[in-house]
Every structure is written in structure tokens, then in C-alpha cells.
Design a protein that fits this description.
There is one protein chain. The chain is of the alpha/beta class. The chain has three domains: about 150 residues, Nucleotidyltransferase, domain 5 (2-Layer Sandwich), CATH 3.30.420; about 90 residues, Nucleotidyltransferase, domain 5 (2-Layer Sandwich), CATH 3.30.420; about 70 residues, ATPase, substrate binding domain, subdomain 4 (Actin, Chain A, domain 4), CATH 3.90.640.10. The protein is about 40% helix and about 25% strand. A five-stranded mixed β-sheet has the order 3-2-1-7-8, sandwiched between helices. Strands 11-10-9-15-16 form a five-stranded mixed β-sheet, sandwiched between helices. Helix 9 links the parallel strand 15 and strand 16. The longest helix has 25 residues. The two termini are about 25 Å apart. The structure holds adenosine-5'-diphosphate (ADP) and magnesium ion. Adenosine-5'-diphosphate binds next to helix 5 and helix 6.
Length: about 325
């Protein structure tokens, strides 16, 4: 027996889909290593808890952080961990693996991912561009001669693609996503409240009260960090209005590339989009009212995928169902 698997190798989260079973693993793309030996101490959830809290001999890092592979060895260790996690049984034949990777990675990096997967125990590897996987995962009719537009806002990247006849007609990758939003929140608090907060706290704030357009009922949140002047721990209460201001620049840059994509899209396909609109996927698309904001700015219908964090993994799963077809060509 063999369990073919699909992997969404995201900049923030790795999601693993096993054929006939669905999504079985969903963990942060984080690896903690010992500095001296570079041996792996922890991967995934356990490693994410260590971010910002490691003693001097351990580093917790995100090997895919900006949509490029920062460290091949660590990426390989991470892939191995995820593949082994779902293929523990030695009686199983090595799996065939479909991996969705950011479309901005280089040919050298693509080869490295493939080799890493083979080292990690894959029998055969198919790489799929992330926006293509997302479009398949949300159920867009990508094989028809009409425009399908997907905007996948991940941690380190935003990927935009217009797909028709199973091919990518237009693609654009921006190295801005949820991480940049977190950073803007941290900078805002430092500048306006003299409060230093960590990466994880910024993310928590974004998820709890982040928005792209005014909310019917604005929210507030208590935030804890360290005062830059007294050096002591302190708590402040911030509102969703302030966080929206902090996020504004990042969101504008995402809006801007979406507009560029529309501007560069062939006219027949642009015409299709008037009715078909844009589908958003990826965790970053869950910022409150981002769909509304994008719709206002583009005058197109915009909807958020049903399960934005799993869209790409579900797409790799759909490809697994028909792998021999997909293996003939690379997308
Ligand atoms: N409810 C939410 N609201 C806003 N952002 C979110 C939410 N849930 C997750 N995110 C953000 O989504 C990003 C991760 O999305 P994901 O699609 O998994 O990224 P990647 O594909 O790069 O791994 C992170 O920046 C995370 O903070
Ligand atoms: Mg992703």
C-alpha cells in the first residue's frame, strides 16, 4: 500500500493532505535547531512556541519565510518531519508527493525542494505553483476557457494568478503578506505607545482585531509588552481603528498589485472577471473586510474561499486524485 500525499509548503504553515483521507497535518513552518551542531530540536507547533523564547544555544527559524528557501538543510529536515509524520508505517511503499511551492522560487530552489522530498522518502515528486493549487482547491473551473482569478495571501507572500485552460495566464508574487502586517503592528505600538511586543503577540492582535475597512462595531484589546522607556512589562488597551491604521500600508500594497494584475490581463479575460470576480485564499485573506476593501478598489465581486488556510492543500489533494494526468506536464 502507498499513501500519496500533497504538501502545501507555505511560508507560515505546512499543510499535509493524504489521498483518500484529507488534511491530516497542519503545523507552522518553523524549525528549531541547535546552533552548534545544526541538529533539529523541534519542528512545527512545538518549534513555533519557541520563537522569541529560545536560550542562546537554540534558534527557531522559518526556512521559507519570505517565499524563498533561506536554508536548504533546514527545509529538508522540515519536509522529512512532515512526510514521516504521515508515513510512519514501514510496510507502506514510499509515497508519491505533490508539493505546492511559492511561485517566486528559483529553478535551483525548485530542484532543491524536489531533492529534499526524495531524500525524505518520496518515490516521485510533482511541484505545483501555489496559486494554481489554490485555484484547484477552491474548486474554480480552471480547465475551462474563462478567467479564474485567485489571490492567495500567505505569511510571507501574496500570490496572484489568472488561470484559464489549466494554465497560468498571468502571475505575480509579492513578498508581502501576513508577516508584514504583524511587523507594522509591532512598529505602530513602538512608535505610538513606546511598547515593544514580540512576533507572536503582533499576530494575535492582527487576528483578534485586524481589519481593512471600518467595522460595524469597532473592537479593542489589551496588549502586553515591554515599555521602551522604563524597560518594564506594561499593558495598554488598543482599538481596531488604530490597528487598521497600522495595517493600511501593507493592505494598500496588496490592493496595488491586484490592480496591476487586472491592468496587465488580456482584455477577453478581464471581461470574464467582471462577473466572475476574484477569489481570496490564504490566512491573510481572513483580515476583516479585506474582501470588501478589494471589491471597492477594483469594482469586481470578491469572495473569500470557504477554507482559506486549507485551499492550497485541498488543491494538492485534488491533483493526487488524478496524478498520472498532472505528471505529464508541470504546472
Ligand atoms: N483569522 C485571521 N485573520 C488574519 N490573518 C490570519 C488569520 N488566520 C491566520 N492569519 C494569517 O495568515 C498567515 C498564514 O496564512 P497561510 O495561508 O497559512 O500562509 P502560508 O501559505 O504562507 O503558509 C499568517 O500571517 C497568519 O497570521
Ligand atoms: Mg499558502
Amino acid at each position: 500500500m502507498s499513501h500519496d500525499i500533497g504538501i502545501d509548503l507555505g511560508t507560515a504553515n505546512t499543510v499535509v493532505f493524504v489521498r483518500d483521507r484529507g488534511v491530516v497535518v497542519n503545523e507552522p513552518s518553523v524549525v528549531a535547531i541547535y546552533n552548534k551542531t545544526r541538529k533539529v530540536r523541534a519542528v512545527g507547533l512545538e518549534a513555533k512556541k519557541m520563537l522569541g523564547r529560545t536560550p542562546g544555544n537554540i534558534t527557531a527559524l522559518r526556512p521559507m519565510k519570505d517565499g524563498v528557501i533561506a536554508d536548504f538543510e533546514v527545509t529538508e529536515a522540515m519536509l522529512r518531519y512532515f512526510i514521516n509524520k504521515v508515513c510512519k508505517n514501514p510496510r507502506f511503499v514510499p509515497p508519491r508527493v505533490v508539493i505546492a511551492v511559492p511561485s517566486g522560487i528559483t529553478e535551483v530552489e525548485r530542484r532543491a525542494v524536489k531533492e529534499s522530498a526524495i531524500h525524505a522518502g518520496a518515490r516521485e515528486v510533482l511541484l505545483l505553483q501555489e496559486p494554481m493549487a489554490a485555484a484547484i482547491g477552491v474548486g474554480l473551473p480552471i480547465d475551462e476557457p474563462i478567467a479564474n482569478m485567485i489571490v492567495d495571501i500567505g505569511g510571507g507572500t501574496t500570490e496572484i494568478a489568472i488561470i484559464s485552460l489549466s494554465g497560468i495566464v498571468f502571475t505575480k508574487s509579492l513578498r508581502v503578506g501576513g508577516d508584514q502586517m504583524d511587523l507594522s503592528i509591532a512598529n505602530y505600538l513602538k512608535k505610538n505607545y513606546n511598547l515593544l511586543i514580540g512576533e507572536r503577540m503582533s499576530e494575535d492582535i492582527k487576528i483578534a482585531i485586524g481589519s481593512a475597512n471600518p467595522l460595524e462595531k469597532e473592537l479593542s484589546l489589551d496588549v502586553k509588552g515591554r515599555d521602551t522607556i522604563s524597560g518594564l512589562p506594561r499593558k495598554v488597551t488598543i482599538s481596531s481603528v488604530e490597528i487598521r491604521e497600522a495595517l493600511q500600508e501593507t493592505i494598500s500594497s496588496i490592493v496595488e498589485v491586484v490592480r496591476q494584475a487586472l491592468d496587465q490581463c488580456p482584455p477577453e479575460l478581464a471581461a470574464d472577471l467582471v462577473d466572475r470576480g476574484i477569489v481570496l485564499a490564504g490566512g491573510g485573506s481572513m483580515i476583516r473586510h479585506l474582501d470588501r476593501k478589494l471589491s471597492e478598489e477594483t469594482h469586481l465581486p470578491v469572495i473569500v474561499a470557504e477554507d482559506p488556510l486549507r485551499a492550497v492543500a485541498n488543491g494538492t489533494g485534488a491533483v493526487l486524485q488524478n496524478l498520472s494526468f498532472w505528471l505529464k506536464e508541470e504546472y
